[in-house]
Amino acid sequence: MKRGPAVLTGVHFINGDVACAEGALAAGCRFFAGYPITPATEIAERMAERLPEVGGTFIQMEDEIASISAVLGASWAGVKAMTATSGPGFSLMMENLGFGYMTETPCVIVNVQRGGPSTGLPTLVGQGDMMQARWGSHGDYETIALAPSSAQEMFDLTIAAFNLSEKYRLPVLIMSDAVIGHITERVIIPPEEEIPIVNRKRFTGPRETYLPYLPEDDLVPPMVAAGEGYRVYITGLTHDERGYPSTSPDAQERLVRRLAEKVRRNARDIIRLEERGMEDADVVLVAYGISARVAYRAMELARAAGRRVGWLRLITVWPFPEERLRELAARVRAFIVPELNLGQIAREVERCAAGRALTIPVLRPGGAVHDPREILAAIEEASHV
Amino acid sequence: MKRGPAVLTGVHFINGDVACAEGALAAGCRFFAGYPITPATEIAERMAERLPEVGGTFIQMEDEIASISAVLGASWAGVKAMTATSGPGFSLMMENLGFGYMTETPCVIVNVQRGGPSTGLPTLVGQGDMMQARWGSHGDYETIALAPSSAQEMFDLTIAAFNLSEKYRLPVLIMSDAVIGHITERVIIPPEEEIPIVNRKRFTGPRETYLPYLPEDDLVPPMVAAGEGYRVYITGLTHDERGYPSTSPDAQERLVRRLAEKVRRNARDIIRLEERGMEDADVVLVAYGISARVAYRAMELARAAGRRVGWLRLITVWPFPEERLRELAARVRAFIVPELNLGQIAREVERCAAGRALTIPVLRPGGAVHDPREILAAIEEASHV
Amino acid sequence: MSEERHPLDHLLRADRLPHIWCPGCGIGIAMRCLVLALEELRIPLDRTVVVSGIGCSARVAGYVRLDGFHTTHGRAIPFATGLKLANPDLTVIVFSGDGDLAAIGGNHLIHAARRNVDLTVICVNNFIYGMTGGQSGPTTPLAARSTTTPYGNFEPPFNLPALVAASGAVYVARWTVFHVRRLITALQEAITKRGFSFVEILSPCPTGYLRRNKLGDALDMMRVFKTQSEIRHGAPPAEVGIELGKKLILGKFVDLERPTYHERMRKQLAAFFIEPYVEKVSEEVEAEEVES
Amino acid sequence: MSEERHPLDHLLRADRLPHIWCPGCGIGIAMRCLVLALEELRIPLDRTVVVSGIGCSARVAGYVRLDGFHTTHGRAIPFATGLKLANPDLTVIVFSGDGDLAAIGGNHLIHAARRNVDLTVICVNNFIYGMTGGQSGPTTPLAARSTTTPYGNFEPPFNLPALVAASGAVYVARWTVFHVRRLITALQEAITKRGFSFVEILSPCPTGYLRRNKLGDALDMMRVFKTQSEIRHGAPPAEVGIELGKKLILGKFVDLERPTYHERMRKQLAAFFIEPYVEKVSEEVEAEEVES
Amino acid sequence: MSVEPTVHTPSRAVRRPRGRVFLLTERCKGCRFCVEFCPRHVLAMSDRFNSKGYHVPAVIAEELCTDCKMCELLCPEFAIYVVRLEEER
Amino acid sequence: MSVEPTVHTPSRAVRRPRGRVFLLTERCKGCRFCVEFCPRHVLAMSDRFNSKGYHVPAVIAEELCTDCKMCELLCPEFAIYVVRLEEER
Amino acid sequence: MSRWEVKIAGFGGQGIILAGYLLGKAAAVYDRRHATMVQSYGPEARGSACNSQVIIADEPIYYPYLTEPDVLIAMSQEAYARFAPEVKPGGLVLIERDLVAPDAGRLRDEGPGEDTVRLYALPATKIAEELGHRIVANIVMLGFLCALAPIVSPSGMREAVRSSLPKSAIELNLMAFEAGYERGRLSRSADDRV
Amino acid sequence: MSRWEVKIAGFGGQGIILAGYLLGKAAAVYDRRHATMVQSYGPEARGSACNSQVIIADEPIYYPYLTEPDVLIAMSQEAYARFAPEVKPGGLVLIERDLVAPDAGRLRDEGPGEDTVRLYALPATKIAEELGHRIVANIVMLGFLCALAPIVSPSGMREAVRSSLPKSAIELNLMAFEAGYERGRLSRSADDRV
Ligand SMILES: Cc1ncc(C[n+]2csc(CCOP(=O)(O)OP(=O)(O)O)c2C)c(N)n1
Ligand SMILES: Cc1ncc(C[n+]2csc(CCOP(=O)(O)OP(=O)(O)O)c2C)c(N)n1
Ligand code: SF4
Ligand code: SF4
Ligand code: SF4
Ligand code: SF4
Ligand code: SF4
Ligand code: SF4
Ligand SMILES: [Mg+2]
Ligand SMILES: [Mg+2]
């Protein structure tokens, strides 16, 4: 049945959703369970077409809860797995997303954000789920969330997301948006051998010695798959290194701290940023997703008008690049944060700025991207304070 | 069928969950739809017993999603309605909670927090859902969340929650925890006539003039119930004042901004705090729920040791009391924030402190409350910096 | 040959017409049948509520001039349950699509049927997810193409009448948008039936289903409805599954008496509340040892 | 009269015994029947997986010495579906409670049956939510007391065999924890059956159900199982609903052949992939006008 | 084929009902249901477009219309309806 | 009540299987299933408690045991099991 | 004393939580004082260790956990072993005689000293069985406690029993209370003290 | 010119998005330039206004929306009315002759001036119908465009058509392209210019 290449090396003109699906296939994803929802549906549709070509499995489940559950199950079968959705479906996934963090199950969840809250603006852009990505499931945990800004990045970051998820054993989120999901652009898919692939650490020692939740130095425990004979017991209850449930506050402390620490301690490895004009900037635009591209235009306009403006694009949104923001806060006058929400990442920027630099959110709740001139106005404002 | 008094005036020795149910009945709640989950089950159980006595309706639904949906439906039938759950169920409610904000449906949702993430520690305490309360549903919105610290407050704040929800037309959250839900204490229920009750503004004008989403000065539109002849159309899509769907970014701007502003502008009316020792404090403990009571003990110990410690208890957690925190940050040395999570409200404190005061989180991921001496140690630390 | 008002405009939000449905979409016909059924029934329309989930079919709640609730995907039934339980005087009609009611909302469907809450659930079965652009769903026939079954569907569809009947529905019927008069009668029966009633309406989706499956346009589907249907009232629900190439079995399959949720509730509660209220240690206090 | 190891300890996580179940709880018996069934079947246990949701019954996944997944409440079946689809060589058994599988998980149950995924679903029906302390559920008999039906339950329970049969299950049986030998045979049949099989196991919950309903202790319930049961293989599923005071109908109700999900998939896909891969504008590009 | 005895009310028995067809052209989306399923072939598709570019039907033989309302009932757009004419005497 | 013809294999036909009962007392929770459903009344509840305070059964007539394993099969606790004795010759 | 910290500990099913509840209720509702009770139990549905912590005071109680219990009622060996060492010097330890074997060491009352407690043993279960049902052993213990320490008024306890239990159970429980109380009054001078 | 901004606008079902896609693909894949396309459409499944915005450039394109279109292809009156005023002075406006009636005003080319555009009209639908199916009117327009402005190479366009469409449709679409292209070449001097 394997008839198509997994890696479509070459130059393409495809939209972000399709690029995301191709990225997943290139990363080795062989299982997709999903449920249609605008503007993420094309990811599922592409996977439905392509997975059978490469011997993988596509299934449309009865809802998003079933979708993420099936993805977690597939991951424990040893297969790289993904689902894709938008706000309403993302909300439904929250409980089982938490199960993914608790059981340290590698997988990738794509959220192509539309205008919210609720059904909101199904076909139009929004970035209102950024904080939900961090805090949407109950209990405390750390996550990794990447925000692509182009169709090319929908491809690239999907690979990165799989690699991070395999490396650190957790669900990794791709927080895209309706514009980036539907924008059609040149996407260059490199030859298969040039694509770096990370696979989960596998335990291959004798059965008797295997402790499913005994971490190594990087705080990540090696993994096995169901059916390999290790007879693991995996539970969403607080558990000890054997995986057995425990109700001791100590076990909770050890487990939950480690889940957070494995992300925090490796933040440098995880965080990616793109910067422009930082050398002389006294005002810095902080943005992500489509807003970063709009902000770029505002920077061009501002620089043309003689303003010393820098541009910081968050590719990794979570863990939040605190360190870099704190550094910058010490030497710039203001951060300008254009977002398609009521101010989410702006709060993080404000926290890290710690009063040393001003934080100016430029907000729209979605439906359309900013007019670059709105951002320009904020630059002007900041340049005058 | 109405056989029992709705308001059980008198002195009781009951646990927080039972007090919560009694508070709901006293507030006029006549509909409860829920699904069992430790440690919130007793709220449902008490409602199952009590609602039929007062002519109300209790139904156990097939899951938490159905529960919150039924609650929203009941509210649109003109009846005060509530549900109660804990972390996993709260996560499942996120999508339809957003529908409640979008459609401005008054109702109360109780979350008796246990240790998370995932199934975690079902019987043990946690406070890991505080940020989820603010950010758990997709899209951007403002919410109101109250954090009771005693069985008495489970009663009092449930009434307050209903009143706020009716006044501002939105789902109001009670963010309790396993200790407060299960602690059994003296609860004094006042005579019925001493309980202040707020009911939603009703529209009673002629049908033709009714615009379901035309706000008044307080930004809250008057409400009608299904069956009253107004023939409303209520949708979770972005809508105009008629309630009709609209895909214009303008409609989004107007609606979503107003949903946030009606909470923000009325923050003073909504926010409740309890303070001690603030006159001379140079270190302030900021806490809520059971942790506030533990912190109180730490304050006593510290004061006995000559430390000038203040105690700020967040009764309203969302909207966050930014103003008060900023005021205090200008004159105290440090905030100490003990929480049963990895640092959630501490981030908000840090943001508001804006570098002017230190923020010292004292964290446990749940399973047990702090030893007051852990907090004391932080006070000592803060007093020496 | 042109005049301002359609005779049904007073029952519609005519200011929202033309509606968003595609040329040839059958949902508009289903909506008219509902509206006509209601008009003829002469029940108080001020107390009649239409609740829907999300989907093309679900848009009906926004076009009828009744209280209309366009809830979230799959949740029309529990929302309607809350409405009905909180105000039993309402006539509560759920109108939504096959995906909404039977995929994401399937659990609510069977539980509401089990409870026998007095609701009327009208399900437009167009064999596809229309609104999101033609993905397969739990009613898509075997081998059919959709955007998520590019190689043909290999998941057998639900037989919805059998499913709701096994769950406890007291009235179950199936018609097509071609069978307008019978459909109107069925809707009236369903609405007046005490308890959980279910009407499946087969409807063409030229955009999402027919085009992709080379089944012609909506008119062709209407011809199929006209010529390939067989009316078999009382057919055992298990035997009315829809299979490509076979006759479509239509009719009223279930119509039986069973106490409704409210009836059972009243009866059960009537035995209590003879004594005045006494505070007691509810067994909770002793149920110290529970978990999860 | 005492020795170190029980002959089944090698199939259990004996280091976790005694288990958490109450004295007289039937789940332990059901678990043994599963373990014995597996042992006798001689299928490779290294490739046998038990998936559960949350509840007392769901704890089985943590006591059998197999790969065990204790997932979230209600989601065992979709998790199991992912496992099975990603690795068809696994034998995937879902073991959970009535509330888990039929209340919150009801939708997954019917959809998995519809798809006929090759899973074995074992449902311990103890008529109650045990783990949370005795709330009513979708299998609680009419009039029964529970902490959430203090005045007696007035929601009719599901007839689970009828529900899963109407959804498409190819094997459906019901036994009690008293009928251990027959139960073992049924489990073996269910596990070896290709497609979606379902075994309902009636089991006493003295703590959450019997005590509150003055039905005596677990032993009394076992006596009821022994004396009040009637074995009727092949009984029409619609006729096996459980009613208080009537005979419990046990037996194998459904055992039929229908292509499994994988079989249908392979057949459907086999017709394709004759030509090499060509990038085409999938119809998405033209599906410009979709929403929600 | 009625087997009931016919009561002769001469002025009515021979008359059949007649209808006048109205079209709200701007609502029509040209699905042709009304044309196809009119049992009397009263309607046909015309060359005319409405402002959205849809072909709309035309009444080609109104005198044949029996006011059966099939067209009205089957129109998904609420675009066509029939009014019964005063009976011709 | 077997109606099949009996084949005489003298040394075996007259012997019935026998079992020895083992109890893991610390696992037992005293449910009495084994006692109640032993067809040969081999077991009875004793006065003994285990360390969790549960009454445990005692073997009162092991010689009657036919190794039918009913006790073992019905024990929810994996606390009782039966080993077949060498057949007596 | 204006503040009492009481721990009642044993197994699930022994009525540990109910005992704490009744004690607190007597104080809060009938003696009109402040009272809190928090409870703790294991994951098992039955039979795991559990305890309740009751604080009774004239002031509002913020921190609801015991820092140094004034009283321990131990209904199992495990409970005794775990919690007896925490009891405040000079505090009171009541044990179910047939289930708990006290150790030597600090617990013997060898005259008032820094590190001693007052230890009393009562065959509460046996007394309860004699009254009709072992389930009321917890109430026997409460009666015993009431007589040995002025924590709550006996009348308050009786009211708490009356207002909290199902009608059919009230008489038996009151009898249990009186039986325990009587033994306590005797014990104040007699040899129930270990 | 190193940067082109093109807007194609009309109704859902006219192949507006496909036209934008093919244009972008020709540029990105076959001419090896940078290209982006964003699209916009209404809530209806069919028949609502829709448009696609294509930018083609030698540099990476950050901001993917048109600021001042160089080219507008208007396939409906509504599209023309809404978007024609945005076109850059000196820009190109192509209309479907049978569906769009251009107004007088700035759009007439009255000699090169500040506020003028070049307007061409083509009966693309009619041409398409003559070729066999009105569905290819969009491709006719693309051919027309290719001849009138050096946005993408005609060979790139042909490749884009070949690689993007189902086999059965390629020939018709290529014919449509050539027909439009031919008309465009003629028009450069002739009277298709309005
Ligand atoms: C939680 C959630 N998931 C997915 C969607 C996207 N969605 C909207 S409608 C729909 C399917 C509608 O299909 P159906 O119910 O059959 O209605 P139709 O459009 O065919 O009438 C889907 C998947 C959504 N709005 N919310
Ligand atoms: C989302 C969610 N809701 C509720 C719960 C609480 N909960 C745990 S088990 C259970 C019911 C279990 O009942 P059943 O499946 O019948 O299993 P039993 O304990 O009776 O064997 C519930 C409601 C949960 N863990 N997660
Ligand atoms: S997509 Fe299908 S169901 Fe939706 S409006 Fe169009 S024809 Fe109707
Ligand atoms: S509560 Fe019921 S189901 Fe759970 S272990 Fe106890 S007896 Fe078994
Ligand atoms: S009313 Fe009947 S006869 Fe007249 S036009 Fe309509 S369908 Fe034809
Ligand atoms: S049925 Fe209605 S929409 Fe269809 S052609 Fe006739 S008038 Fe137009
Ligand atoms: S094996 Fe059979 S006969 Fe022997 S003790 Fe057990 S149940 Fe009784
Ligand atoms: S069946 Fe098992 S648990 Fe029950 S009494 Fe016998 S040995 Fe003990
Ligand atoms: Mg559909
Ligand atoms: Mg159960």
Automatic annotation (TrEMBL), chains A, B:
SUPFAM superfamilies: Thiamin diphosphate-binding fold (THDP-binding) (SSF52518), TK C-terminal domain-like (SSF52922). CDD domains: TPP_PYR_PFOR_IOR-alpha_like (cd07034). GO terms for molecular function: oxidoreductase activity. Keywords: Oxidoreductase. It holds the Pfam family POR_N. InterPro entries: 2-oxoacid_oxidoreductase (IPR052368), PFOR_II (IPR033412), Pyrv_Fd/Flavodoxin_OxRdtase_N (IPR002880), THDP-binding (IPR029061), Transketo_C/PFOR_II (IPR009014). It comes from the Bacteria. Residues 281-375 form the Pyruvate:ferredoxin oxidoreductase core domain. Residues 22-248 form the Pyruvate flavodoxin/ferredoxin oxidoreductase pyrimidine binding domain. The keyword Cell inner membrane does not apply. This is 2-oxoglutarate ferredoxin oxidoreductase subunit alpha.
UniProtKB/TrEMBL annotation, chains C, D:
This is 2-oxoglutarate ferredoxin oxidoreductase subunit beta. Transmembrane segments: none annotated. It comes from uncultured Acidobacteriota bacterium. Keywords: Oxidoreductase. It comes from the Bacteria. The keyword Cell membrane does not apply. GO terms for molecular function: oxidoreductase activity, acting on the aldehyde or oxo group of donors, iron-sulfur protein as acceptor; thiamine pyrophosphate binding. Residues 56-201 form the Thiamine pyrophosphate enzyme TPP-binding domain. One of its GO terms (biological process) is cellular respiration. The lineage of its organism: Bacteria, Pseudomonadati, Acidobacteriota, environmental samples. InterPro entries: 2-oxoacid:Fd_oxidoreductase (IPR051457), THDP-binding (IPR029061), TPP_enzyme_TPP-bd (IPR011766).
TrEMBL record, chains E, F:
The keyword Metal-binding applies. InterPro entries: 4Fe4S_Fe-S-bd, 4Fe4S_Fe_S_CS. One of its GO terms (molecular function) is iron-sulfur cluster binding. PROSITE patterns: 4FE4S_FER_1, 4FE4S_FER_2. Residues 19-48, 56-85 form the 4Fe-4S ferredoxin-type domain. The keyword Secreted does not apply. It comes from the Bacteria. Gene3D superfamilies: 3.30.70.20. Keywords: Iron, Iron-sulfur, Metal-binding. PANTHER family: FERREDOXIN SUBUNIT OF PYRUVATE:FLAVODOXIN OXIDOREDUCTASE-RELATED, IRON-SULFUR-BINDING PROTEIN. This is 2-oxoglutarate ferredoxin oxidoreductase subunit delta. The lineage of its organism: Bacteria, Pseudomonadati, Acidobacteriota, environmental samples.
From TrEMBL, chains G, H:
Coiled coil: none annotated. Residues 12-182 form the Pyruvate/ketoisovalerate oxidoreductase catalytic domain. InterPro entries: 2-oxoglutarate_synth_KorC, Pyrv/ketoisovalerate_OxRed_cat, Pyrv_flavodox_OxRed_cen. Pfam families: POR. Keywords: Membrane, Oxidoreductase, Transmembrane, Transmembrane helix. The chain crosses the membrane at residues 6-24, 135-153. GO terms for molecular function: oxidoreductase activity, acting on the aldehyde or oxo group of donors. The keyword Membrane applies. PANTHER family: 2-OXOGLUTARATE SYNTHASE SUBUNIT KORC. This is 2-oxoglutarate ferredoxin oxidoreductase subunit gamma. It comes from uncultured Acidobacteriota bacterium.
